[in-house]
Specification:
By secondary structure, the chain is mostly helical. The protein is 45% helix and 5% strand. It has two domains: 226 residues, Lysozyme (Orthogonal Bundle), CATH 1.10.530; 116 residues, Roll (Membrane-bound Lytic Murein Transglycosylase D, Chain A), CATH 3.10.350. The strands form three sheets. The protein has a two-stranded antiparallel sheet. The chain has a two-stranded antiparallel sheet with strand order 2-3. The longest helix is centred in the middle third of the chain and has 20 residues. The radius of gyration is 24 Å and the shape is elongated. 38% of the residues are buried. The N terminus and C terminus are likely disordered. One of its GO terms (cellular component) is membrane. InterPro entries: LysM (IPR018392), LysM_dom_sf (IPR036779), Lysozyme-like_dom_sf (IPR023346), Transglyc_AS (IPR000189), Transglycosylase_SLT_dom_1 (IPR008258). One of its GO terms (molecular function) is peptidoglycan lytic transglycosylase activity. This is Membrane-bound lytic murein transglycosylase D.
């Protein structure tokens, strides 16, 4: 599938044009703005092409045993000799094996799902390890520059990519939403500026396309290849791809580098359920039968612990627990009682926010803030979270 086919399927051609225009004025965490025109020159594609000689038996691949084997099966850059920059970071990571163990353990909830998303797009499997370099696989990571989340999006880039942010929700911290946006962004820049060259797109992801394009123009003017390895870039960007390739090399052959990786299942460890009514994460945890910390860790984009359909359309739960939560939410929604559960209220005909606030002993503004409401419009049957002053939500 070509890049444009993928993008038209995901966003539509008109949306791609609008997104490209927005990104011209803003970029990623360390990105510069004012992206110059494409400098020309065709570079090799980084995507793997299916072999024309493949036959039926070669297509019968065994199911991967774990997330690591699935990830390795999608690596595309492991057949290249490691240059000095990559060797430097391999030595660095080897000297700090505990750091690798901690970060890969932190990747446990997300690695299989991210690998699946990368695989579906035909991108190099190494892309799934970008959060290792960007955020040490911490969905709540924030940089002093203002970048946030697993993929470290700056506010301007997040806005251009449609990642919503408000006082109750930050799409940069939402792993599912931000991962899809990051992969869209990498593909978009690769096609827009670099004829599909993913390595140059990753450099632009870190430093901004303007910085990379200027360095590439200089490289081409000297008669160099104009690929990532021939560019003079900011220090951090010069080491961005070497770090990524180094950690991928270690994961590709952990025994060789004397590193023990945690066991992670090959299938995603979470399920997504549709969110049709406001729900406090503590209550969701109780209904699902998991700890509040587990529910919060799976839904880091929800600030303050309240899920609302106005902010996000899905809630993540541990795999295998989704049916229990769905059935209990259905029972709660069909209950004839005005009080759906402790701390929530079902709107009745004739209710207003001021009337509900008066009855519940809270202010209208508190109800608005708790439920992500911007005005006074409510509907019969709607479930509102009521702020509890005697027992604070955790």
């Amino acid at each position: 599938m070509t890049y444009y086919t993928t993008r038209r399927r995901i966003l539509g051609f008109a949306s791609v044009v609008a997104l490209t225009g927005s990104l011209l004025a803003g970029a990623h965490s360390q990105a510069s703005t004012n992206l110059p025109p494409h400098s020309g020159g065709v570079l090799p594609q980084d995507r793997a092409a299916p072999s024309a000689g493949s036959h039926f038996w070669e297509a019968l691949a065994l199911e991967p045993k774990d997330a690591w084997s699935r990830l390795r099966a999608n690596f595309q850059w492991q057949d290249q000799a490691h240059n000095e920059r990559v060797q430097h970071w391999i030595a660095h990571y080897q000297a700090n094996p505990q750091n690798i163990i901690e970060i890969t353990e932190r990747a446990r909830p997300w690695l299989a799902w991210i690998t699946e998303q990368v695989e579906q797009r035909g991108l190099p499997g190494e892309i799934a390890l970008i959060p290792f370099v960007e955020s040490s696989f911490d969905p709540r990571a924030r940089s002093h520059r203002g970048a946030a989340g697993l993929w470290q999006f700056m506010p301007g880039t997040a806005d251009a990519l449609g990642l919503r942010r408000n006082g109750a929700y930050d799409g940069r911290l939402d792993v599912v939403t931000s991962t899809r946006a990051a992969l869209d962004y990498i593909e978009l820049q690769a096609d827009q500026w670099y004829d599909g060259n993913i390595k140059l797109s990753l450099a632009a992801y870190n430093a901004g396309a303007g910085t990379v394009n200027r360095a590439r123009n200089v490289s081409l003017s000297r008669g160099d290849a104009g690929d990532y390895w021939s560019l003079q870039l900011p220090h951090e960007t010069m080491h961005y791809l070497p770090k990524l390739k180094a950690i991928a090399a270690i994961i590709n052959a952990p025994d060789e580098y004397r590193v023990t990786l945690p066991e992670i299942d090959a299938s995603p460890g979470f399920a997504s359920i549709p969110l049709t009514q406001p729900l406090n994460l503590s209550e969701a945890a109780r209904l699902t039968g998991v700890s509040p910390d587990t529910m919060a860790d799976l839904n880091p984009g929800l600030i303050g612990g309240n899920a609302h359909p106005n902010h996000t359309r899905a809630l993540l739960v541990p795999v295998g627990r989704e049916q229990a939560l769905l059935s209990r939410l259905e029972n709660r929604q069909s209950s004839p009682s005005n009080t759906a559960s402790e701390g929530s209220y079902v709107v009745q005909r004739g209710d207003s926010l001021s009337l509900i606030a008066s009855r519940q002993g809270v202010s209208v503004e508190e109800i608005r803030r708790q439920n992500g409401l911007e005005g006074n419009l409510i509907q019969s049957g709607q479930v509102l979270d009521i702020p509890q002053r005697s027992l604070a939500f955790r």
